[in-house]
Amino acid sequence: IYKFPGTELARRAERMIHCSAWTVQVSAMKTRSAASTMVDDLKKKNLPAAIQNVLTDTGPMFAVQVGRYATYEQVMAALPTVKGVSPDAFITPTK
């Protein structure tokens, strides 16, 4: 997707993973209130955090994510900053 943007191959790959952008996931929590607290803490550190509702086999979860990046290179550049606050953070595709 990021190596051949705008190509038919990239469009097919986006459809397969339902990805139109990238984000950094910090955590997934069972309650919205816990996720909201984490988002507030991240925003205090100038990170653009938000909650994404996620359905899992065990029920709904609330993923705390930072940023929305059009390319993999952009999300890779942001990852070290987020990991400085949350070492377990990881890159994930998003819609």
Notes on the structure:
Helices cover 39% and strands 35% of the residues. The two termini are 13 Å apart. It has a 4-stranded antiparallel beta sheet. The chain is flat. The protein is of the alpha+beta class and 95 residues long. The chain is built from 3 helices and 4 strands, in the order H-E-H-E-E-H-E.
Write the layout of secondary structure elements.
Elements: H1 8-17, E1 21-29, H2 32-44, E2 49-56, E3 59-69, H3 72-85, E4 90-94
Antiparallel strand pairs: 1-3, 1-4, 2-3
Structural class: alpha+beta
> Please, how many helices?
3
Distance between the termini: 13 Å
- Average pLDDT over all residues: 91
Strand content: 25-35%
In short:
39% of the residues lie in helices and 35% in strands. With 95 residues, the chain is of the alpha+beta class.
Please give a handful of descriptors for the protein shown.
95 residues, 4 strands, four-stranded antiparallel sheet
